[in-house]
Design goal:
This protein is α/β, with parallel strands linked by helices. It is built from 14 helices and 15 strands. Helix 1 crosses helix 2, helix 4 runs parallel beside helix 5 and helix 10 crosses helix 11.
Length: 408
Amino acid sequence: MTLPVPLPPVTSVTRQLSRRSVFEALLHRSPISRADLAKVTGLSKQTMSEVIDAFGQQGLVRQVGRTSGNVGRTALLYELSPEGGHVLGIDLGARRLTVALADIAGRVLAETDEPTDNRGGAWALDQIARLSDRLTRDNHTHLSRIRSIVLATPGVVNPRSGAIEMSPNITGLGHLNVVALLGEKLGSPVVIENDINLALLGEIWHGCAQNVANVAFLALGSGVGLGLYANGQLVRGENGAAGEIAYLPLGGDPLQAESRLQGCLEYQVGATGVLRRYREAGGSEVDSVIQVFERAQVGDPIAAQVIGETARLTGLAAAAVIAMVDPQLIVLGGSVGARPDFADQVARLLLQLSPRQVEIRTSTLGRRAGVVGALSVALSRLHDAFFGVSELAASLPLPPPAHGSARQ
């Protein structure tokens, strides 16, 4: 007589794994019936019903109709409820502040932006709190109901002081405990991440770098920065400063005062540097880098020379990145980098500079890349907080970009 194999004891880890697998199926396959959930997850119908009922009591799922077109009885369909949890993604740029609200399934419910307060420091933090509060109230929720908040900002957070350092384009952040102050203003802990890193993650989630495991995001606009994604992981470095490419000693004297403060490469190819070089070369008065590009397109030789030199220096920086990290793809972003005409110049130079050809793409998210990346990290943190299992190192995969964005 063969004795039955005893079932493993039902432990908290077992229950959590069951909940996690059901949540993941709802995240990626909604709307879906209980029977199909059981097939996808391999769980028994009884366990599935227990999980769905628990999710319903927690406000995590809702019914969205019944199956149709099949012979026999219809079945209820379920999806994650928008009320199951909200997240905020915030992008504090030198020129614009953007705030986006999304639900637990990754649906962007609302998004708004306005010019960044040019006084920086505490004024910028007050602006973040005001805009976040307005966005949540206008969408019938409250900051106290936000379960995860991520802020994208230039520079690097000092883990000891909470200040944001190496951010010359937004003044006053290096002398404040931004982490504590903003968490107090928003009523919830805030995770602060470098804006270029988040722009990279935005392109990986919703943009031009989906399903690519080795990507470099090179941003060129007000400043210059680099985000690195190697073997499916964001590269941060010892102090979180990996990718501070502005300090590469390219284009000028890296020991002069301006280069030491701003970074040698950024001093030359950042927006202020491009304008400075155009004026110094004898170009007429302009207000923006965009005007320099426009003049180059209509035959201004000085503008064309300045843009060409900017592309050359950017190409040198990109060649250094290729030599060091061997990416499959380089994404060019920022107000200058994402211009197709500029990207074409950089790509042509790289054919001469690099022994290995690497695909160059321009950002498809544009200035929204940072806030989309902030939402992706906020969602991952929320999902892990609800359904993370310490025995599993991997986070839940984010939902595909199936939903459009709302703007206000």
